[in-house]
Amino acid sequence: MKVVAIGGSSAPHSYNLMLLNYMKKHFTGLEMSVVSARGLPLFNEDDKLPDALQKLTDEIDAADAVIIACPEYNHSVTSALKSVMEWLSASVHPLYRKPVMLVGASTHVQGGARSQIHLRDILLSPGVQAVVFSGEEFFLGNCRQAFDDQGNLKDQGTVEFLEKCVSEFSHFVKVVNRAAKEAAE
Of 7, 16, 46, 85, whose CA is between 20 and 30 Å from 76? Predict the structure, then answer.
């Protein structure tokens, strides 16, 4: 399965990007490319789609699914991630009917739960219309202590739960993409 993973932080050190990089390394059955929102231009409706966003659009179009690691600032999504969503819904629509899984890492106990609720609303809105996985939800709280020096998750229970989430998401992707293919025929 080909997956584009988007890290929604603009911070130089991002636990959400660490989580995605861990997933890329751990889930060898996924062909995963990881993209950071850091450095992507802020949305401006008067501007032409920047090359970096066109490249991301092309990658999403070619992928089977998308995973978004959603940081939480002030109980919502980051401005960097919101900007990416705006680019991906203004003149291009690569997330339309694309299976999307949300994950999140936070230094606080809730693991970004509130930001994922807001991002889910954005992804379901007209102009985006992604198919958001609503099975198992993965929130990594207290993430400062969650990773070892090599960027691996330390807690085996957390690893097993993430494996369960990704397994269920993989099944979800197959069902969604099969239904989309049948609808197109």
Answer: 46
